[in-house]
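hey can u check if this looks right to u? its 400 residues, i copy pasted from the old doc so theres a chance i mangled smth
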Amino acid sequence: MTTPTPLALPRPLALPDFPWDSLRPYRARAAEHPDGVVDLAVGTPVDPTPAVARTALAGAANAPGYPAAVGTPALREAIATWMESRRGVVGLNDSEVIPTIGSKESVALLPLQLGVGPGDLVCHPRAAYPTYDVGTRIAGATPVPVDTDADPATWELPEGRLVAVWLNSPGNPDGHVLSVEQMARIVAWARGRGAIVLSDECYAELAWAQPWASQGIPSLLDARVGGSSADGAPDRRGLLALYSLSKQSNMAGYRAALLAGDAALVGAVTEVRKHSGLLMPAPVQAAMVAALGDTAHVDAQREVYRARREALVAATAAAGLVNDPASVAGLYLWLKGPASMSAYDLVGAFAELGIVVAPGDFYGPAGAGHVRMSLTDTDERVAAAAQRLRSERAAALFGR
């Protein structure tokens, strides 16, 4: 009998464990609360998708053909118009914008789509959404956590070729905002090393403190960041920005997002997307056009989150927790308790109150001793969490 030849199976990627699985026991404990669980661990919108988007989706439901990877002309125009009116990015043309199937897709796949590979280095914020790390590993490159609030000249890099720097402003989980001056410093430093800069800006409509609340949170594509070309046009060489409608428009279930910036980089990504069949469904494209053209629902949703945030900031402070003073935007609180309590100690204490939060360890070593609390549960559940946090039980749990 002939011995079969073993299959030459591909080697599995060296990816970290999926962090949310570790919350199961804490979720189970929180669910035992007599008044029910309050889940503030994941930033999943719970408020209704605006009618303008739902109506447009239904109206475009008869879609028998394949959609274009680059999006419809109407959608590309809507993206460029929105980027100018809401993000201060002027003059984007069709070759500089495309829709994407959610922004997490781009965070995970951009390094691979742009040809990043073994021996390459990709920097990302030291307290960061895990997918920056994972996307770099998928491409076979080396992720390097750095302090994007600091002068990039102070960053310590291992041996290798720096090819890309990820920014995230407002930051997830910490809510930090990068100024025009800081982004310009990082862009100049990266360009001097032949590296591109990628910016995840999906929380940009959620500014809570000045000057950002009135001036707006700056984009990587702001002309003040990249400078100007010889002809006076904004210089977007080596720059790509991501944005998502998941948070501003409660469209997480639609997977509606966008990519904008350097036409050469957008073109390279588009070619991979066309070959891969990464096509945003036509009805979703129509819904995205409608949502980008309506600002009233965005402003209304921001006020909903503002009220929830104010309630949770006050209640966590009453329990003896401290929100990061630089956490001035975004969808989360970035909380610390007593020095003696680890992130998982804090998660356990919250679970005793029937509240689920995420340990800072999910976001890298810089998250030690922190927990991330989202603003995404209903008004009634957020009020319940605030009431529990003001109790004597909470004071005892957090050592107040």
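The chain has 15 helices and 13 strands.
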